């Protein structure tokens, strides 16, 4: 279902994609494919906002923000 939802979200080529735990319950291979697809979308100019608890997914991001006691902090920033 996650892959179908992602495909439906991308079919219109939006400028912004909001993805809340898009790899939840996916196996390792499908997780990697979805994250690579989202990375390609970002590289092609789409703004991708990914919410995740998975460090592996966060590793694909340009910038990572974390919530700490209700406060959002930048944990990783581009050079």
Features:
79 residues; alpha+beta; two-stranded antiparallel ribbon; 3 helices; 4 strands
Using only CA atoms, what is the Rg? 13 Å
Number of strands: 4
Strand order of the largest sheet: 1-2
Poorly predicted runs of 5 or more residues: none
The first-to-last residue Cα distance is 36 Å
Mean pLDDT: 90
Structural class: alpha+beta
Strand content: 25-35%
Describe the structure.
The strands form two sheets. A two-stranded parallel sheet has the order 1-2. By secondary structure, the protein is of the alpha+beta class. It has helices spanning 2-10, 28-43, 55-58, and strands at 16-20, 47-51, 64-68, 71-76. 37% of the residues lie in helices and 27% in strands. The longest helix has 16 residues, at 28-43. It is globular. It is built from three helices and four strands; from the N terminus they run H-E-H-E-H-E-E.
Summarize the entry for a quick read.
37% of the residues lie in helices and 27% in strands.
Write the layout of secondary structure elements.
Blueprint: H1 2-10, E1 16-20, H2 28-43, E2 47-51, H3 55-58, E3 64-68, E4 71-76
Parallel strand pairs: 1-2
Antiparallel strand pairs: 3-4
């Amino acid at each position: 279902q996650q892959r179908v939802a992602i495909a439906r979200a991308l079919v219109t080529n939006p400028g912004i994609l909001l993805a809340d735990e898009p790899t939840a319950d996916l196996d390792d291979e499908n997780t990697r494919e979805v994250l690579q697809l989202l990375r390609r979308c970002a590289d092609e100019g789409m703004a991708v906002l990914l919410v995740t608890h998975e460090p592996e997914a966060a590793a694909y991001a340009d910038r990572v923000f974390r919530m700490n006691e209700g406060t959002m902090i930048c944990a990783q920033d581009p050079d």
